[in-house]
Each structure stands twice: as structure tokens, then as C-alpha cells.
Amino acid sequence: MAARPIKISAVDLFCGVGGLSYGLLKAGIHVAAGVDVDDSCDYPFRANIDAPFHRRDVREITADELAAMWPGKSVRVLAGCAPCQPFSSYRRGVDTSQEAQWPLVDEMLRLIAGTLPEIVTMENVPRIVSTAIFRKFVVGLRELGYSVDHSSCFCPAYGVPQRRRRMVLVASLLGPIAVPKGTVPSSEYVTVRQRIEGLTPVEHGQAAADDPLHKCRSLSDTNLKRIRQSKPGGTWEQWDEELRAPCHRKASGSTFRNVYARMAWDEPAPTITTLAYNYGAGRFGHPEQDRALTLREAAILQSFPEEYEFVAPDQPVQFAPLGRLIGNAVPPRLAEAVGTAIVDHVADHTKQKRSRPRAIVQQLPLPAV
Ligand SMILES: C[S@@+](CC[C@H](N)C(=O)[O-])C[C@H]1O[C@@H](n2cnc3c(N)ncnc32)[C@H](O)[C@@H]1O
Q1: What class is the 192-328 domain?
Q2: Which of 146, 152, 246, 260 lies in disulfide reach of 141, CB 3.0 to 4.6 Å?
Q3: Three-state secondary structure of 70-113
Q4: Is the Cβ atom of 19 under 6 angstroms away from ligand 1?
């Protein structure tokens, strides 16, 4: 009789709109629940992931509460992407620097220590690896018996049409585990054209009739003149002198070349930030149409499927909150690669585990931090 496949169940802390969960689902991992303090994640998480959403502050969740979110008889995954952006909407008047949010990584470690899920995965900005809080997290995992690996992942190599780089960590109690390598060669990176060229054309300040998320901000007269003079992949240096902004006149660095700019068609997009709907905030001009990206285009360039639901049908589509949720998400294609590596790892190590006592598994050599 064929062995029954092992059920792998994830709880997603700081789940947002579900980018990480969606990728895990695509890899064949059951998502048991998502936790996030932001109410606006409730609808998209439930609509796309089809799992319970808990509007809770992770700092207030106990290990027993978390343990009850996983179903019995499954290999448990704790996935978490503690915020890497300031959240000024909840922390008005308080220090909202990124560093102020990183102690939430400690909260994740507290919950891991209290529940010992077989697998842990975390995603964050690459520079977190040089912080004390991250080193403490890795040391804490190893002391608990986890094999740990982490790597800075370049998203185009995972099939994401975007030059985003993200730190991915995986940890396992079952045996040595590794962050999957990106396998897409640079000649085959998915491009902006491949993903958004076929969408309905939209005027600035308008939305497509068939998709309220395919909506873009209006441009001022000056910005309209600027984008009309912008070439795909070009810079403001190609504009008439009088259209240049004061920051351009002073600027020398390359960062300034990438504002008020159009994307190139035949390359991956630049990093989709929380402001990707704003022409002035980066290289977020559409390659051809005289406007910034729509929210739908931003989501697609994050590798969300075209039909992903971000807002309930009776709710307004607002740029700032939705731009934040989309820009903060883990690209689902990257998450799917991580999920597939977890599925393969569990398949390999649960077979071996029957003949190998756990104490020995825990003594396997650990990779350097
Ligand atoms: C980087 S985003 C997560 C993105 C998500 N993993 C995805 O792929 O879509 C971080 C999330 O942490 C949430 N958050 C911030 N502080 C929190 C807290 N104390 N408890 C629970 N969630 C929190 C934010 O609301 C935000 O949705």
C-alpha cells in the first residue's frame, strides 16, 4: 500500500495580504492560519488563502494559542515575516524606524521556543543579517536544536519579474535544510512586458471597468509633461531643462536617476515598494502609457496572480493602504520556491527519521551564520 503523503501545515505570523502563504499553498503546504494586527489583511487573507485570519498583535499571542492553530498530526511550519517597514498608521507619534520594529523577531523566537514547530521560515530585508537581533535569532534557533540556513535571494532568479533582493531563512528540527537556489538564468528573467503588456490600457487617474485594482493615480500637468518626455528605461536627464525638479538639478547619485522614470519593457521591474503607484517615488512610470503603475500592475510585478483579491467588492480602492500591503508582501513565487524546498526536505527527512534517533539529528553539523 502506498504511504499516505505527510501533511505539512503552516501558521503565518505577520501574514499581511498573504503573499508568503499563497506561495506556500502553491507548493502544496496547507496554511492553517494567518496572524496580523492590521484589519485590512482579513479580507484578502481569507479570500485567497481560504484559512482563518486572526487579527492579533503577535506580542500578545501565547505559545498555547499558537499551538492550537495547527491541526493535529501534521508537520508544523511557522512562517513569519516581521515588518521591515515603519508602520506609522499604528504608531503615530512613536518612533517608527525600522529598527524599532525588529524586536518583533524576538517575539517569533519566543513562540518558536514555546511550540517547537518542525520547520521555521522567515523573510526580511537583506541587511537584517548584520543586526544583533538577527544573530540572536539564529543562535536561539540553534540552541533549540534547529539546523539553520539563510541566504540573500535575488527574486528574478526565482521567476519573479522584479529586481528585489530578500533574506530568506529556513530552519528545521528534522535535519540539515538549505534555502533553495534560484534556478532561472539571467537570459530567462521574466520581464515587465511578459507580465503586464496585455492588460487593459488605463488613463492616468482612471481605473479599468473590469478590475477596480487596475487603477492609477492622476498626474499633475507638470508630471504629465515629464512622463511624455520619458523613455522606457531612460532618465530625467533626457527631459527639457525646465521640467527638471530642484532635486534633479542638485543630484549626482544614481538613486536620483531612478525617480520620475519609466520602467523598461524587456527587463524585470525595479523593487516594487509601498509607493509603486507614485510616479515621483521611483522608476514606476508605465513603459508606454503616460501614467504610473496601477495597483494591479504592482501586484502582478510582485508575482501575485492577476485575479488575487486585495479588497472586498464593496470597499474603496485606496492607493496608500493597498500600495503598502502590496509592496510589503513576500513575492509569492519566491515563497513557492521556499515552500517546495520545505516539502522536499520533509519528504527526505521523515523517511530517514524512523531509523535515526532525534538526538543524533540534532547533533548534525550546522552551517555558519
Ligand atoms: C512585511 S509585512 C508581511 C507581509 C506578508 N508576509 C505577505 O507576504 O504578504 C509585515 C506585517 O506585519 C504586520 N504587523 C506589524 N506589527 C505587528 C504585530 N505586532 N503583530 C502582528 N502583526 C504585525 C503588519 O500589519 C504587516 O502586515
Answers
A1: alpha beta
A2: 146
A3: CCCCCEEEEEECCCCCCCCCCCCCCCCCHHHHCHHHHHHHHHHH
A4: yes
Ligand 1 contact via 100 beta carbon (within 6 Å): no
Per-residue pLDDT at 102? 67
Q: How many other CB atoms are there within 10 angstroms of residue 257's CB atom?
A: 16
Question: What topology is assigned to 8-185+331-350 in CATH?
Answer: Rossmann fold (3.40.50)
Q: Per the structure block, which three cell numbers stand in for 153?
A: 535571494
Q: What pLDDT, in 10s, does the model give residues 126-159?
A: 999 998 999 999 999 999 999 999 999 999 999 9
Higher pLDDT, 82 or 138: 138
Percent of residues, the chain, with pLDDT higher than 70: 84
Range(s) within the chain of domains with CATH label 3.90.120: 192-328
Average pLDDT, the chain: 88
Whether 336 lines ligand 1, by a CB cut-off of 6 Å, is no
pTM for the whole structure: 0.89
Give mean pLDDT, residues 64-83: 95
Q: Enter the C-alpha cell of residue 369.
A: 551564520
Nearest residue (by CA) to ligand 1, atom 19, is 57
